[in-house]
Specification:
The chain is α/β, with parallel strands linked by helices and 106 residues long. Helices cover 26% and strands 19% of the residues. The protein is globular and about 35 Å long. It starts with a helix and ends in a 9-residue tail after the last strand.
Length: 106
Protein backbone atom coordinates (compact mmCIF):
# COMPACT_ATOMS: atom_id res chain seq x y z
CA UNK A 1 0.00 0.00 0.00
CA UNK A 2 2.86 2.35 0.74
CA UNK A 3 4.06 1.93 -2.84
CA UNK A 4 0.65 2.90 -4.20
CA UNK A 5 0.51 6.01 -2.01
CA UNK A 6 4.04 6.90 -3.07
CA UNK A 7 3.23 6.31 -6.76
CA UNK A 8 0.21 8.61 -6.53
CA UNK A 9 2.38 11.25 -4.87
CA UNK A 10 4.94 11.11 -7.68
CA UNK A 11 2.15 11.38 -10.25
CA UNK A 12 0.48 14.26 -8.38
CA UNK A 13 -2.71 12.21 -8.29
CA UNK A 14 -5.42 11.92 -5.68
CA UNK A 15 -6.32 8.46 -4.40
CA UNK A 16 -9.81 7.18 -3.87
CA UNK A 17 -9.69 3.83 -2.11
CA UNK A 18 -12.65 1.45 -2.10
CA UNK A 19 -12.28 -1.33 0.45
CA UNK A 20 -13.98 -3.36 3.17
CA UNK A 21 -14.91 -1.72 6.46
CA UNK A 22 -12.19 -3.64 8.32
CA UNK A 23 -9.45 -2.52 5.93
CA UNK A 24 -10.94 0.96 5.77
CA UNK A 25 -10.44 1.51 9.50
CA UNK A 26 -6.82 0.37 9.30
CA UNK A 27 -6.02 2.57 6.30
CA UNK A 28 -7.61 5.62 7.92
CA UNK A 29 -5.27 5.23 10.88
CA UNK A 30 -2.21 4.39 8.81
CA UNK A 31 -2.49 7.32 6.38
CA UNK A 32 -4.22 9.93 8.54
CA UNK A 33 -1.16 12.20 8.51
CA UNK A 34 -0.33 11.95 4.79
CA UNK A 35 -0.30 15.35 3.07
CA UNK A 36 -1.75 14.20 -0.25
CA UNK A 37 -5.44 13.75 -0.87
CA UNK A 38 -6.65 10.25 -0.01
CA UNK A 39 -10.34 9.49 0.27
CA UNK A 40 -11.92 6.23 1.33
CA UNK A 41 -15.20 4.51 0.52
CA UNK A 42 -16.59 1.27 1.84
CA UNK A 43 -17.00 -1.58 -0.65
CA UNK A 44 -17.88 -4.85 1.05
CA UNK A 45 -18.37 -7.19 -1.87
CA UNK A 46 -16.21 -7.81 -4.95
CA UNK A 47 -19.27 -7.52 -7.17
CA UNK A 48 -19.90 -4.02 -5.77
CA UNK A 49 -16.85 -2.95 -7.77
CA UNK A 50 -19.00 -2.91 -10.90
CA UNK A 51 -21.33 -0.36 -9.31
CA UNK A 52 -18.44 2.11 -9.68
CA UNK A 53 -18.71 2.04 -13.47
CA UNK A 54 -20.46 5.42 -13.60
CA UNK A 55 -17.97 7.03 -11.23
CA UNK A 56 -14.74 5.95 -12.93
CA UNK A 57 -13.72 8.07 -15.90
CA UNK A 58 -11.74 6.94 -18.95
CA UNK A 59 -8.67 8.91 -17.81
CA UNK A 60 -8.68 7.29 -14.34
CA UNK A 61 -6.45 4.39 -13.37
CA UNK A 62 -8.32 1.53 -11.75
CA UNK A 63 -5.97 -0.46 -9.53
CA UNK A 64 -7.34 -3.68 -8.07
CA UNK A 65 -5.53 -5.73 -5.43
CA UNK A 66 -6.49 -9.37 -5.70
CA UNK A 67 -5.49 -12.46 -3.73
CA UNK A 68 -3.34 -15.15 -5.32
CA UNK A 69 -4.58 -18.69 -5.78
CA UNK A 70 -4.03 -21.03 -2.85
CA UNK A 71 -4.04 -18.21 -0.29
CA UNK A 72 -6.52 -17.70 2.52
CA UNK A 73 -8.18 -14.68 0.86
CA UNK A 74 -8.59 -16.37 -2.52
CA UNK A 75 -12.02 -17.35 -3.88
CA UNK A 76 -12.55 -19.17 -7.18
CA UNK A 77 -14.81 -16.36 -8.42
CA UNK A 78 -11.73 -14.11 -8.54
CA UNK A 79 -10.59 -15.87 -11.71
CA UNK A 80 -13.31 -14.06 -13.65
CA UNK A 81 -12.52 -10.57 -12.36
CA UNK A 82 -9.79 -9.59 -14.88
CA UNK A 83 -12.06 -10.32 -17.86
CA UNK A 84 -15.05 -8.64 -16.24
CA UNK A 85 -13.02 -5.54 -15.44
CA UNK A 86 -11.70 -5.36 -18.98
CA UNK A 87 -15.20 -5.54 -20.46
CA UNK A 88 -16.89 -3.32 -17.88
CA UNK A 89 -14.34 -0.52 -17.60
CA UNK A 90 -13.04 -0.19 -21.16
CA UNK A 91 -11.26 2.15 -22.08
CA UNK A 92 -10.15 2.86 -18.48
CA UNK A 93 -6.58 1.80 -17.65
CA UNK A 94 -6.56 -1.13 -15.24
CA UNK A 95 -3.79 -2.64 -13.11
CA UNK A 96 -4.42 -5.82 -11.15
CA UNK A 97 -1.92 -6.37 -8.34
CA UNK A 98 -1.27 -9.75 -6.82
CA UNK A 99 0.63 -9.19 -3.56
CA UNK A 100 3.88 -11.06 -3.14
CA UNK A 101 3.83 -14.13 -0.98
CA UNK A 102 6.00 -14.62 2.06
CA UNK A 103 6.60 -18.06 3.41
CA UNK A 104 6.22 -21.39 1.64
CA UNK A 105 2.72 -22.05 0.30
CA UNK A 106 2.00 -25.28 -1.53
Amino acid sequence: MDSIVQFAGFAGADLEIFTSSKTLASLNQLYADKPRQISYSQLENRTDLFSLKEKIQKDDLLLVVQARRHTVSYASTMDKIPGLLSRSFSPTSIIILYPSLSGNFQ
